[in-house]
Amino acid sequence: QVQLVESGGGLVQAGGSLRLSCAASGRTFSSSPMGWFRQAPGEEREFVAAISRGDGRTAYADSVKGRFTISRDNAKNTVYLQMNSLKPEDTAVYYCAAGRRYTTYNYTPRASDEYDYWGQGTQVTVSS
Question: For residue 119, how far is the Cα from the chain centroid?
């Protein structure tokens, strides 16, 4: 079993920044790719960013590329999402997810069904 706990959400003005954190416990953190997803009211959950388990390769949704940065600290069992130049359309509940173990070293999964465990989510609200 894996537990994921997100933190760092909140209310910010457009153009501002937030850093989300996701602390993992329960299995070897470094064996899994990690991802961030988000879900706005009335919308489906969508991919935001992913980071591989091995070489730190990253992938981003086009809507956040150049503004968001995903990173991980395996010593702290934590994955981060630095969000800059926030826009009102970034408003959503953000979820951290742990991918399947021992995937290809540089794999960055984008589909939600490639993730086994999910956090409870943290609300991000961007005001205009």
Answer: 10
Which residues have C-beta within 8 Å of that of residue 88, sequence separation ≥ 6?
A: 14, 126, 127, 128
Question: Which is it for the CA torsion 85, 89, 92, 98, positive or negative?
Answer: negative
DSSP H or E stretch at residue 83: strand 78-83
H/E stretch holding 20: strand 18-25
3-state SS class at 77? coil
DSSP letter (8 states) at residue 103:
-
- Cβ atoms of 75 and 88 within 8 Å: the answer is no
pLDDT digits (tens, 9 = 90+) for 12-66: 999 999 999 999 997 778 889 999 999 999 999 999 999 999 889 999 999 999 9
What six digits make up the tokens of 92? 């959503």
| CA pair distance 24, 87, nearest whole angstrom | 28
- Burial class of 45 by CB neighbour count within 10 A (0 to 12, 13 to 18, 19+): middle
| DSSP summary character for residue 64 | T
CB 49 within 8 Å of CB 66: no
**CA proximity to 4, closest of 71, 96, 93:** 96
